[in-house]
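Worked problem 6 (solution included).
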Amino acid sequence: MSGRPLALVVEDSADQMDLLQRYLDREGFDVFAAIDAESAIAAFPTISPSVAVVDLLLPGITGEECARLVQARFPDCFLIVSSVLDVADYPDADAALPKPIVGADLRRLLRGVAR
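Solution. The predicted structure is:
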């Protein structure tokens, strides 16, 4: 255990995942990376994320459903939804991170997250 808070990232794009991992590491988080909702859900018994970044456009179980499951399982987790979709179409979450993702935007969103 590193003592750093954990960020759950559910993102099916390798490039976006790499970018988010770099940004979150820079902000002081360890990252649990899942390429789909099923992988993230399977890890629920072994993780306790402080923050989650969930892509809305995922194969299989939708990002919206994954976000709901994260909220239900980890009510204190700061939930960020991310997508190329119009922000008006995002489900309820603590924050929205439209793509393309910019490090400064993520940093601003993370200011309120307890670490």
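Discussion: The chain has a mean pLDDT of 95.
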